[in-house]
Amino acid sequence: MLVPKVQFTESRLPNGLRLIISEDHLAPVTAVNVWYNVGSKHEVPGKTGFAHLFEHVMFQGSAHVGKAEHIALVQAAGGTMNGTTWLDRTNYFETMPSHQLALALWLEADRMGTLLDALSQDNLDNQREVVKNEKRWSYDNRPYGSWVEKMLGSIFPEGHPYHHPTIGSMEDLDAASVEDVSAFFRLHYAPNNAVLSVVGDVEPEQVKAWVTEYFGKIPANPDLPAALPDMSLPPRIGREIREVVPDRVPLPRIHWGFRGPLFGDHRLDALDLAGQILAGGKGSRLHRRLVREELLAQDVALFSMGLVAGASVTTGWATARPGVDLGRLETAFLEELERIGHEPVSDDELERAKALTESDELGALQSTSEKADRLSMYATLFDDPGLINDILPRYLSTTAEEIREVCADVFRADNRVVLTYLPAGPEAAADAALGAAAGAAA
Amino acid sequence: MTDAIVVSARPTHGEPRPYHFPRFERQELKNGLGLITVDLPGRALVTASLVLPSGAVDEPEELGGVTSLMARALTEGTSRHDAIELTEASERLGASLHAEAGWDGLSISVEVPAERLSAALELAAEVAIEPSFPAADVERQRDERLNDLLQAKADPRRRADDGFVETIYAPGSTYGRPSAGTEETVPKLDAEACRVIHGRRLDPSRMTLIVGGDLGAVDEDVRSIVEERFGAWQRNPAAEAPIEPHVEAARDGRIVRVIHRAGSVQTEIRIGHLGVRRRIPDFHAVSVMSAILGGLFNSRLNRKLREEKGYTYGAGAGYDMRRGVGPFAVRVAVNTDVTVPAVQDILVELEAMRAGPPTTAELHAARDYLVGVFPLRFETPPAVVGAIAGLLIHDLPTDELDRYRPAIEAVSDADVERAAREHIDPAKLAIVLVGDADAILPSLEGAEIGPIVVDREELPGEAGQGAADAA
């Protein structure tokens, strides 16, 4: 085996905090990574966007840390940090020079234990405006920027926890009060709802001592939210959903989306390899045919976003070259998806996809922060950090027949969302956005 | 009460682990090709990068973009293999092979598991030495670039970046356009132009191969591998030396340029002027100064515009240091109705940066960050190889990276103030705003920031609608 095994130890504090430690002394660097088992799927109607807004609030100070001081302290220590929110979880991470590890652990403990001591109306109002500008920047003022929201809205039915995007609704954010945000914190941000991974140039016994000292007295939440209501969905959407989206773009683009197998299901590994074979570079089938040979597309993509309940999102796009007939573009793209569900991929295609996957793993695991994030992820989502070492063997064991089978199941007309972005002036684009907003409110 | 939950005393840090930038040395093959190896034990995915310290700076203005196109076309086929065969061969090795050129350099790089380095370098050598530039593939890549230019005009942030350099550099200046060419120059490019520029630029005696990673895991001696793959490459007597970038400011005074985008929910703001080249004596002082102004999260600009005002998702500023004088820019996107107050805040901060020394806390925060983060920047082979490539491209001494941390530590508050006075000039600022001119102009005109010009060009994809809608 080319890729070395990640060695780690696991323990749990009496308050439920799960601690994973992995030594790697190649560089004087340590990664700290906390996953909270809360994502936008935990939001209730009328309070969308809370998980993400909350991620911002986590940098606004706690009992012993001032507003924006968390980041100032990390940067002054020579570290880097951020937080991200996704449908299934929220994570926070620092990469530190290894002699500064204690500071990062203390900072994470202080906000896990005492965030509400510093929460103020001013800070909430300020970050609400920042988040609105994040939405304008990442979605509204970006060509094709609405596709994720539209895709989630079509693949998952109204009322399903994955139906709305993490950024949420601006009306809901406007309505968020300090009390709402405090309640969200009390419910979800507790040591027994978190996983802490520490990876890098560390002495495990010292890490345990610090973690016990800083996190040990933070009380568990005895009333963690019950498991979400059943999120399961039929494996297919049941029909084709089509939408034409006028946008301020020069080139038309077609986005496709499908319900795919769940993250953790080996069939999603097979679908990932199919994504590599179909769109993973110059030699891939879609790129070769649409971009190189038939000159239909400027670019193509196909990949899956793994989710743990209901369905994953398998999605792709093709940006049309100027003047290209969109019917031809769509036919060519779909023919390739159909073909891979009918005939097994060649041995050579499969071997190439596996070799690239193996190198990607090797590259990813050279980074302490990536290792820490994956350990937290597998512990949070599957209760098994050891999966970090199983994922590559699973990819490598995949057969051509498994790929054919999953592609035949997923790439079907009755499991398909098709968003066609067409060039339009500002008025048409604004009308389309309004229409979408009205539709969402209905 | 919560004091008891988490201890209030902030932890002190331990003893820093000894660290230096990974050691590397340069050797030379008989054909003049430089070879730099840098052993990074445990890093089994090796990066090898063949670097030419010459890029779009050195191309004729009327052929703008030819170096970038030539670099991308290198992997489109060789005298032995077509593009698909090359890609497939590289994929079988688990290698990624790509070539690209920017303003100051061109690189052909592979990332590959150490035990397959030799086979991957064979492909890299083939691509560098005997590219075939098939006409149809070059034309396709050229057309993709033209389409990309269309996309760039419709994307507010790319429009702002391109509009900013157009505004600050005088016509004919090297950096006044995108390095991959413009709508005027790209249509003239073809396979022959790529062949010519390849013949004039690539020369083993002007290039260096940098190999970084776990060299102990490579089966053979790296030098023998490189001799085998690149040894037969002949020196190129026709190759031309890099030229001095030609850079001139467009004007002496201020300008406010509004690029109209009807109904835009945000304004993309760029404010700045010509900056500095990389090889300057006060490089470290400028680095600290720009971190305080717009590099750190708690930089003056981000603190003001994001954390105090909530105008933006993030504000930053910096110097793009190149072989010649690159741009200095503040970059931020704000919601449309606060465009003018945001511009005014930025102007105040730029003046304030010059008006006195930074606080001690600011100085320490910036220096400590730049010094402390240094080892984190070089955790992986691509980062280490990239940093060494930067030394070659900017013709910097080999101990430059070892000197970095002591030199940053030595920057004083007076140095920062001096750097701000020398390299920020409020009288010469160009203020470029991509947003809804009709919404911005009334308050902008009243603000008396500088002479205003408004571009109401039609955006691609809106042909025929702009005029009617505006009426």
Provide an overview of this structure.
The complex is a heterodimer of chains A (442) and B (471). Chain A is 44% helix and 19% strand. Chain A has 442 residues and is of the alpha+beta class. Chain A has two domains: 9-215, Metalloenzyme, LuxS/M16 peptidase-like (Cytochrome Bc1 Complex, Chain A, domain 1, 2-Layer Sandwich); 239-441, Cytochrome Bc1 Complex, Chain A, domain 1 (2-Layer Sandwich), CATH 3.30.830. A six-stranded mixed sheet of chain A has the order 1-2-6-3-5-4, sandwiched between helices. In chain A, strands 7-11-8-10-9 form a five-stranded mixed sheet, sandwiched between helices. The model of chain A is unreliable at 435-442 (pLDDT under 50). In chain B, the strands form two sheets. A six-stranded mixed sheet of chain B has the order 1-2-6-3-5-4, with helices on both faces. In chain B, strands 9-10-8-11-7-12 form a six-stranded mixed sheet, sandwiched between helices. Chain B is α+β, with helices and mostly antiparallel strands. Chain B has helices spanning 66-73, 83-92, 117-129, 135-154, 156-168, 191-201, 222-230, 283-295, 300-308, 339-355, 360-377, 381-393, 400-409, 413-423, 437-447, 466-470; strands at 25-28, 34-39, 45-52, 96-101, 106-113, 208-213, 255-260, 266-274, 312-319, 327-335, 430-435, 452-455. Chain B is built from 16 helices and twelve strands. Chain B folds into two domains: 25-230, Metalloenzyme, LuxS/M16 peptidase-like (Cytochrome Bc1 Complex, Chain A, domain 1, 2-Layer Sandwich); 255-470, Metalloenzyme, LuxS/M16 peptidase-like (Cytochrome Bc1 Complex, Chain A, domain 1, 2-Layer Sandwich). Chain B is globular and about 65 Å long. Chains A and B meet through helix 2, strand 5, helix 3, helix 4 and helix 8 of A and helix 2, strand 5, helix 4, helix 9 and strand 10 of B.
